[in-house]
Design brief:
With about 220 residues, this protein is α+β, with helices and mostly antiparallel strands. It contains 1 helix and 14 strands. It has a domain at about 80-210: Immunoglobulin-like (Sandwich), CATH 2.60.40. The protein has a 6-stranded mixed sheet, with no helix packed on it. A 4-stranded antiparallel sheet has the order 5-4-10-11, with no helix packed on it. Strands 3-7 form a two-stranded antiparallel sheet. The termini are far apart. The model is unreliable at about 1-45 and about 50-65 (pLDDT under 50).
Length: about 220
Protein backbone atom coordinates (compact mmCIF):
# COMPACT_ATOMS: atom_id res chain seq x y z
CA UNK A 1 0.00 0.00 0.00
CA UNK A 2 2.73 2.41 0.82
CA UNK A 3 4.75 1.33 -2.18
CA UNK A 4 1.91 1.95 -4.65
CA UNK A 5 1.22 5.41 -3.32
CA UNK A 6 4.82 6.29 -3.81
CA UNK A 7 4.61 5.06 -7.37
CA UNK A 8 1.57 7.17 -7.99
CA UNK A 9 3.32 10.25 -6.61
CA UNK A 10 6.35 9.69 -8.85
CA UNK A 11 4.27 8.91 -11.92
CA UNK A 12 2.27 12.16 -11.75
CA UNK A 13 5.22 14.51 -12.18
CA UNK A 14 6.55 12.35 -15.00
CA UNK A 15 3.22 12.53 -16.78
CA UNK A 16 3.17 16.30 -16.48
CA UNK A 17 6.73 16.56 -17.84
CA UNK A 18 5.87 14.30 -20.75
CA UNK A 19 2.83 16.47 -21.57
CA UNK A 20 4.97 19.59 -21.62
CA UNK A 21 7.51 17.99 -24.00
CA UNK A 22 4.72 16.67 -26.24
CA UNK A 23 3.04 20.08 -26.36
CA UNK A 24 6.30 21.81 -27.29
CA UNK A 25 6.90 19.28 -30.04
CA UNK A 26 3.43 19.78 -31.45
CA UNK A 27 3.83 23.52 -31.40
CA UNK A 28 7.11 23.26 -33.25
CA UNK A 29 5.63 20.88 -35.78
CA UNK A 30 2.65 23.09 -36.35
CA UNK A 31 4.84 26.09 -37.00
CA UNK A 32 7.00 24.17 -39.44
CA UNK A 33 3.98 22.61 -41.11
CA UNK A 34 2.31 26.01 -41.76
CA UNK A 35 2.59 28.00 -44.99
CA UNK A 36 6.17 29.05 -45.62
CA UNK A 37 6.78 32.73 -45.06
CA UNK A 38 6.92 34.86 -48.20
CA UNK A 39 10.48 35.55 -49.20
CA UNK A 40 11.51 39.16 -48.67
CA UNK A 41 12.00 40.78 -52.06
CA UNK A 42 14.71 43.43 -51.98
CA UNK A 43 13.15 46.79 -52.84
CA UNK A 44 14.33 48.53 -56.03
CA UNK A 45 16.67 51.42 -55.40
CA UNK A 46 14.89 54.81 -55.41
CA UNK A 47 15.23 56.75 -58.67
CA UNK A 48 17.82 59.47 -58.43
CA UNK A 49 16.31 62.93 -58.16
CA UNK A 50 16.89 65.02 -61.32
CA UNK A 51 19.72 67.49 -61.05
CA UNK A 52 18.41 71.00 -60.38
CA UNK A 53 18.31 73.27 -63.42
CA UNK A 54 21.04 75.87 -63.60
CA UNK A 55 19.77 79.26 -62.65
CA UNK A 56 20.30 81.64 -65.54
CA UNK A 57 19.12 84.54 -63.47
CA UNK A 58 15.70 84.71 -65.13
CA UNK A 59 14.13 81.73 -63.36
CA UNK A 60 14.41 79.44 -66.41
CA UNK A 61 17.03 77.15 -67.86
CA UNK A 62 16.68 78.55 -71.37
CA UNK A 63 19.66 80.09 -73.12
CA UNK A 64 19.20 83.86 -73.41
CA UNK A 65 18.87 85.24 -76.92
CA UNK A 66 21.72 87.32 -78.26
CA UNK A 67 21.02 91.02 -77.75
CA UNK A 68 21.16 93.25 -80.81
CA UNK A 69 24.31 95.36 -80.89
CA UNK A 70 23.81 98.92 -79.73
CA UNK A 71 23.56 101.44 -82.52
CA UNK A 72 26.78 103.37 -83.04
CA UNK A 73 26.48 107.04 -82.16
CA UNK A 74 27.37 109.52 -84.89
CA UNK A 75 30.06 111.99 -83.87
CA UNK A 76 29.15 115.66 -83.71
CA UNK A 77 30.22 117.86 -86.61
CA UNK A 78 33.09 120.14 -85.62
CA UNK A 79 34.96 123.04 -87.18
CA UNK A 80 37.58 120.54 -88.33
CA UNK A 81 35.22 118.60 -90.60
CA UNK A 82 32.86 121.24 -92.05
CA UNK A 83 33.00 124.17 -94.43
CA UNK A 84 30.54 127.04 -94.28
CA UNK A 85 29.05 129.28 -96.95
CA UNK A 86 26.89 132.31 -96.08
CA UNK A 87 24.74 133.64 -98.93
CA UNK A 88 23.20 137.12 -98.65
CA UNK A 89 19.51 137.32 -99.64
CA UNK A 90 19.06 140.48 -101.74
CA UNK A 91 15.29 139.97 -101.90
CA UNK A 92 15.09 139.96 -98.09
CA UNK A 93 16.47 143.47 -97.68
CA UNK A 94 13.94 145.65 -95.90
CA UNK A 95 14.81 148.93 -94.21
CA UNK A 96 17.64 148.26 -91.80
CA UNK A 97 17.13 144.47 -91.81
CA UNK A 98 19.32 142.05 -93.79
CA UNK A 99 18.97 138.27 -94.29
CA UNK A 100 21.37 135.50 -95.25
CA UNK A 101 21.36 131.72 -95.57
CA UNK A 102 24.00 129.66 -93.78
CA UNK A 103 25.04 126.36 -95.39
CA UNK A 104 27.07 123.94 -93.25
CA UNK A 105 28.63 121.22 -95.41
CA UNK A 106 30.21 118.02 -94.16
CA UNK A 107 33.70 118.15 -95.70
CA UNK A 108 34.89 114.92 -94.10
CA UNK A 109 34.66 111.31 -95.25
CA UNK A 110 32.32 110.24 -92.43
CA UNK A 111 28.78 111.17 -91.40
CA UNK A 112 28.58 113.69 -88.57
CA UNK A 113 25.73 114.99 -86.42
CA UNK A 114 24.17 118.47 -86.13
CA UNK A 115 21.49 119.57 -83.69
CA UNK A 116 20.81 123.16 -82.63
CA UNK A 117 22.11 126.52 -83.81
CA UNK A 118 25.27 127.58 -85.59
CA UNK A 119 27.73 129.85 -83.81
CA UNK A 120 28.18 133.12 -85.75
CA UNK A 121 30.76 135.89 -85.18
CA UNK A 122 31.54 139.05 -87.09
CA UNK A 123 35.26 139.40 -87.91
CA UNK A 124 37.09 142.69 -88.52
CA UNK A 125 40.00 143.45 -90.85
CA UNK A 126 42.49 142.52 -88.14
CA UNK A 127 41.01 139.04 -87.90
CA UNK A 128 39.48 139.68 -84.49
CA UNK A 129 35.94 138.67 -83.60
CA UNK A 130 33.69 141.65 -82.95
CA UNK A 131 31.22 141.33 -80.09
CA UNK A 132 27.66 141.57 -81.47
CA UNK A 133 24.47 140.89 -79.46
CA UNK A 134 23.28 137.49 -80.77
CA UNK A 135 20.00 135.69 -80.12
CA UNK A 136 19.13 132.15 -81.23
CA UNK A 137 15.54 131.86 -82.48
CA UNK A 138 13.39 128.82 -83.33
CA UNK A 139 12.92 129.86 -86.96
CA UNK A 140 11.58 128.34 -89.15
CA UNK A 141 10.93 125.96 -86.25
CA UNK A 142 12.64 124.04 -83.49
CA UNK A 143 16.07 122.57 -84.34
CA UNK A 144 16.06 119.25 -86.18
CA UNK A 145 18.57 116.53 -85.32
CA UNK A 146 20.54 115.87 -88.51
CA UNK A 147 22.94 113.07 -89.46
CA UNK A 148 24.94 114.79 -92.21
CA UNK A 149 26.57 112.45 -94.77
CA UNK A 150 29.81 113.52 -96.47
CA UNK A 151 29.31 116.21 -99.12
CA UNK A 152 25.83 117.22 -97.95
CA UNK A 153 24.70 120.41 -96.21
CA UNK A 154 22.35 121.58 -93.49
CA UNK A 155 20.87 125.08 -93.62
CA UNK A 156 19.88 127.92 -91.32
CA UNK A 157 18.87 131.54 -91.66
CA UNK A 158 20.40 134.61 -90.04
CA UNK A 159 18.91 138.08 -89.80
CA UNK A 160 20.66 141.21 -88.58
CA UNK A 161 20.09 144.92 -88.18
CA UNK A 162 22.55 147.19 -89.96
CA UNK A 163 23.89 150.42 -88.46
CA UNK A 164 25.83 153.54 -89.37
CA UNK A 165 29.44 152.58 -89.89
CA UNK A 166 30.58 155.87 -88.44
CA UNK A 167 28.71 155.36 -85.17
CA UNK A 168 30.78 154.49 -82.11
CA UNK A 169 28.19 151.88 -81.15
CA UNK A 170 28.08 150.20 -84.57
CA UNK A 171 29.85 146.85 -84.95
CA UNK A 172 31.84 146.72 -88.21
CA UNK A 173 33.61 143.84 -89.94
CA UNK A 174 34.62 142.38 -93.28
CA UNK A 175 33.93 138.69 -92.72
CA UNK A 176 32.05 136.05 -90.73
CA UNK A 177 33.26 133.12 -88.69
CA UNK A 178 30.67 130.34 -88.35
CA UNK A 179 30.70 126.95 -86.70
CA UNK A 180 28.46 124.00 -85.82
CA UNK A 181 26.69 123.92 -82.42
CA UNK A 182 29.77 122.36 -80.79
CA UNK A 183 33.36 122.45 -81.95
CA UNK A 184 34.59 125.97 -82.79
CA UNK A 185 34.22 128.19 -85.86
CA UNK A 186 35.68 128.44 -89.37
CA UNK A 187 36.02 131.40 -91.72
CA UNK A 188 32.92 131.34 -93.89
CA UNK A 189 32.87 131.88 -97.64
CA UNK A 190 30.63 134.89 -98.27
CA UNK A 191 28.40 135.38 -101.28
CA UNK A 192 26.33 138.51 -102.02
CA UNK A 193 28.14 140.50 -99.31
CA UNK A 194 30.24 143.67 -99.62
CA UNK A 195 33.83 142.90 -100.61
CA UNK A 196 36.22 142.34 -97.74
CA UNK A 197 38.28 145.38 -98.72
CA UNK A 198 35.37 147.68 -97.91
CA UNK A 199 34.88 146.46 -94.32
CA UNK A 200 31.23 147.31 -94.83
CA UNK A 201 29.42 144.59 -92.90
CA UNK A 202 27.65 146.36 -90.05
CA UNK A 203 25.60 144.74 -87.30
CA UNK A 204 23.74 146.32 -84.44
CA UNK A 205 22.25 142.95 -83.44
CA UNK A 206 21.95 139.47 -84.91
CA UNK A 207 19.40 136.63 -84.84
CA UNK A 208 20.36 133.08 -85.84
CA UNK A 209 17.76 130.53 -86.94
CA UNK A 210 17.81 126.80 -86.19
CA UNK A 211 19.61 124.22 -88.32
CA UNK A 212 17.41 122.26 -90.70
CA UNK A 213 18.12 119.38 -93.11
CA UNK A 214 16.73 121.38 -96.06
CA UNK A 215 17.02 124.95 -97.35
CA UNK A 216 13.26 125.14 -97.61
CA UNK A 217 11.88 127.97 -95.50
CA UNK A 218 15.05 128.77 -93.55
CA UNK A 219 15.03 132.44 -94.65
CA UNK A 220 11.24 132.84 -94.68
CA UNK A 221 10.95 134.72 -91.38
Amino acid sequence: MRTRLGSVRIAAPLAVLAGVILTAGCSAGTASAGAPASPVTPSAPAAAAPAPAKNSGSGTDTKPAHAAPAARKTSACTAGNVKVTVIGQADRTQGSTRMAMILVENASSRTCHLDGWTSVALVNAAGDEVRVPVRNVSQPGAPTAIDLPPGTSAAAGMKWTVCDKGSATCNVGNGLRVGPPRGGRVNATLQEFPSAEKSAITMASLQVGSLQPSKQGVVAW
